[in-house]
User: Fold this.
Amino acid sequence: MNQKPPVADTASLIERASEIYGLREALRGRPVAAPLAEAPVGPPVTAARPEPVVPAAVSPAAEAPAPKPMAPTPIQPTQPIQQVAAAPTGQWRRTVHSRRADVDLEALGEAGFIVPGAPPSPLSEEFRIAKRHLLIQAFGGRKSQAIDKGRLILMCSAQPNEGKTFCSVNLALSLAAETDVDVLLIDADVAKPEVLSTLGLPGGPGLMDALADPSIDPETLVVETNIPNLSVLPAGRQTNNDTELLASDRTPQLIERLIADNPRRVIVIDSAPALAASPASSLALHVGQITMIVRADQTSESEVREALAMLESPARVQLILNRVTYVGSSRKFGYYYGFGEKS
Assistant:
């Protein structure tokens, strides 16, 4: 079942993933797109006419060590929640958030994540390539138009421990480095939220609180960080009816509220594993892009197929082949910047 056919060493991780998991034919009805990396990454898939795999390489890397416990940073109030009123036509109104907390950049680097402002690394270069495909789908470019809801990206995996949150955080950090993009990272893995602990941010109300109480403006629960262009919406309180809340009419209204007023905003949603919990299938209905993390040394082909079947969505799907180890590629990211050279 898990035996994988040989693939050319020079193929991109996306092309390799599509071959390894036999998805070229199986996903005929879902156009294929690009991959990302938790270390390594892989291919994409869409819903509609079949399309050729869009290469967007991502290099492998060892699984990041568990982040060291970070001392919680108290949320610092800034200004009252407000919006710039009467914005001229064609301009967006930016919300000034009253919640703020600092990410421990040193701890982030020690845990193996991309560090904003640090010199380029093989990992950051791989995410630069991977995010470009997502941005093209989100905003258009290269003679292609933006896809519907392309600024909404769902991060998912078939099973736990496949690098989903690692990829979600690194993708958000990489996107935030763009000069004209605002990134909102939503922790929607409500059963086992890890985004805040990964970034060293304190807990507080968030997504589930806003879904449970329609009188709460979700924008008021967003936490701005010390990383330019990056904000976070916590998972919020735990509940036994999370799937029902996520499947309610309140969810598309909440998402629309978060995306509508800022045409520069890209929302990255870290969801629960598709085969371990049901929220992912509910959220998949409201996004334009889905990025599924596939662990090369662990995820079986049947699990990939079953997870994709669970996500009945017209969204474009990318597979990120994680923890890949292979040789023969001509891509030597890092060496160009001096990394890996021997003195």
